Amino acid sequence: GTVIEALRARGWRLSSEQIQFRNTLLIDLRPGEDELLASMKAKTRYNVRLAGRRGVKVHAGGSDALPLFYEMYAETSRRDDFIIRPFAYYQDAWGAFIEAGLACLFVAEYEEEPLAGLIAFRFGQRSWYMYGASTGKHRNLMPNHLLQWEAIRWARSEGCTVYDMWGAPDVLSEDDPMWGVYRFKEGFGGQFVRHIGAYDYPVSRPLYWVYTVLMPRYLDLLRARHRRRKAQAAWG
Questions:
Q1: pLDDT digit string (tens) for 55-103?
Q2: C-alpha dihedral sign at 30, 35, 37, 40
Q3: Are strands 162-164 and 126-134 parallel, antiparallel or unpaired?
Q4: Close Cβ partners of 209 (under 8 Å, ≥ 6 residues apart)
Q5: Beta-carbon count within 10 A of 153 CB
Q6: Is 100 in a helix, a strand, or coil?
Q7: What sign results for the dihedral spanned by CA atoms 13, 18, 19, 24?
Q8: pTM of the model
Q9: What is the number of alpha carbons within 13 Å of residue 154 lying toward its C-beta?
């Protein structure tokens, strides 16, 4: 409350474009692996073990695996209806962190067939799960559960004490579009943490109006165009 009051007193305004997630879930990595497993919800812990028993294997890949991950990421964007950037952008961003040893790409496979993947980042003693992708194949094998567990184990091995699940609903309600994602992440024993969100400092009122009024309309047009192209592609 004190920080928000100070921002408002100085002319800052809560941004209408909360591009990054305001809230998240954090997992304390200081306990041992057995304790981390015990802190998970029973169903999540069961699914982690189920994936291993049914033959899902998770491999850590380097930059050479980025085209495969992007292919799954593009499939995820089409399925869940969100816009992604061209591969070249991610190749530079993801590749730079992986080559610097600050990120790790994980791919879950079943009988050598890729099912899902994620990229976890680290800096200092904190690690973040920021990108996830999956195919529609063998979902009953729970590859995403095993992926998260292996990413958590990696973060611990790198000396991290916190694993940030990166993203939670603004309001904890079943009506929130992110409720399903939240329930999945919560299962790993993470603590829900609220942040104040993004604030803007409107130096120029006319330009701020362009940013808060015209820019969202332009982005809505881009999203509508993306949905039309997706529908046209589906109809051939």
A1: 999 999 899 999 999 999 999 999 988 889 999 999 999 999 999 999 9
A2: negative
A3: parallel
A4: none
A5: 15
A6: coil
A7: positive
A8: 0.86
A9: 24
